[in-house]
Amino acid sequence: MLDLIVKGGTVVTASETFKADIGVEGEKISYIAAAGKLDYLVNKNADKGNITKVVDAQGRYVMPGLIEPHMHVMAPFNNTIDILDFYTASICAAFGGVTTFMDFSTTTKEVPVLQAVEERKAEMADSVLDYSVHAKFINAGDSREDLQGTVKKLVEDGIPTFKMFTIYPGVMINDADILKIMKAAKEEGALCGFHAESNAIADFMKQNLLDEGKQDWEFFNKAKPNACEAEAVNRILTFSELLDVPVYFYHLSTKEAVEMVRQAKKRGVKVLAETCGHYLMLTDEKNKGEDGINYLMSPPLRSEEDRIAMWEGLKDGTLSLVTSDNEVFSRKIKEQNLKEDALTNGKIPDFSVPVNGIPGLEERFGLLMIGVNHGIISLNKLVEVSSTNPAKVFGCYPEKGTLEVGSDADIIVVDPERTVPLVRGNLHYPADLDYDFYEGFTSRGWPVCTIRRGEILIEDGRFKGKRKSGRFLKCSLKPRKEA
Ligand code: URP
Ligand code: ZN
Ligand code: ZN
């Protein structure tokens, strides 16, 4: 029985734009038909006394729900924690057109990766959106057999995507262990992803700056120059080429790294990479002055030249995804950390103390739409980098990330004329968020209806989702149906 019909809209996928009505039965898309062609089914339902929910999409775009594969929620950082949980994150995300999100296990020395993944899954069960987890590795364990077993189990459990940090004592993994995990990942069909920044460069630069008395947080970016990212990206690409193992880069921010990925792809290296909304829209000018502390994230904001290189990378396919790297801290929390350090250590607070992390989960569609509004990318490209490619890269395509018969009915309806300044009054972050990260940016075009597996989450400006209605998504990188 047809439960829902999205009627009269212009369907936009990563590759096509066409007028169609979309019919939904239960959780799945069951029909995609020329306008009006499904009316007989609606009428048949009515004759039997059943109501088909009609979502009017006249004059609107109908797109696959966005997938956010890179965010941090309930993620401890420097003895503090961000202000979202998976329910409040679901609300923000759904208003921003997201229907699936993915987070990371909080693996530590005390909590090994398999346990950390289970703990994160349990926390994410509070979600309204469908969800999956990336496994964070901080070492390769004690034996080759154990590692192989762990990787195999993760893949079997639907968690074939990993993250490793080449920076930050505590979570940082050494190069020898990276190679071991890459080898095991290749054998078991998993994908290794990297937070690629050089710990040695960042440490060295930091110490030099502190020695020179440059300890204000405005020097945060100077401790992580472009070379800090480029060196780590180069190293991982070398490993990937050596072992012929696919790799993924989270949050690329520099023109050098994008160029390395571009050249590596040309040589046949199996590399995929993302950038984030903030590297497309903002530069390190934002770090100057009184409010600069609000704009601290890792990797840091870069120059205008780097910003342009991100758009170029997206346009020529060097970069496949745009993610948010959302980890929301209030300014109060950021400043509190500075003050606490001064109190407990009696030191003048240095730039490494403020927590880094920024909002973006709800704004991502709007940021990309600004790119569309300026004629930089097409609507199809928007869908590709925010929905279809995340599904393909992280192993849930074509269940997610497309509008096809048989796919999950994860659908957004976008009003192309709705203008939304990206400020707190229009967004749904908790009241603790005390600054506007994207002040001055206005999207023309905004999701007005968000449907997750056939269930309407956002309609008429209201959130209708139910806590814990999201479902764990078992991902797989084994070849499935191609588009
Ligand atoms: O500053 C950032 N990006 N915080 C989130 C953690 C990460 O490294 O992705
Ligand atoms: Zn990272
Ligand atoms: Zn991140």
TrEMBL record:
Gene3D superfamilies: Metal-dependent hydrolases, Urease, subunit C, domain 1. SUPFAM superfamilies: Composite domain of metallo-dependent hydrolases, Metallo-dependent hydrolases. One of its GO terms (cellular component) is cytosol. It is an enzyme of class 3 (hydrolase). Carbamylation allows a single lysine to coordinate two divalent metal cations. Residues 61-456 form the Amidohydrolase-related domain. Its EC number is 3.5.2.2. It comes from the Bacteria. InterPro entries: Amidohydro-rel, Hydantoinase/dihydroPyrase, Metal-dep_hydrolase_composite, Metal_Hydrolase, Metallo-dep_Hydrolases_sf. One of its GO terms (molecular function) is dihydropyrimidinase activity. Pfam families: Amidohydro_1. Keywords: Hydrolase, Metal-binding. The modification N6-carboxylysine is found at K163. Its cofactor is Zn(2+). Belongs to the metallo-dependent hydrolases superfamily. Hydantoinase/dihydropyrimidinase family. PANTHER family: COLLAPSIN RESPONSE MEDIATOR PROTEIN, HYDRANTOINASE/DIHYDROPYRIMIDINASE FAMILY MEMBER. This is Dihydropyrimidinase. It comes from Enterocloster aldenensis.
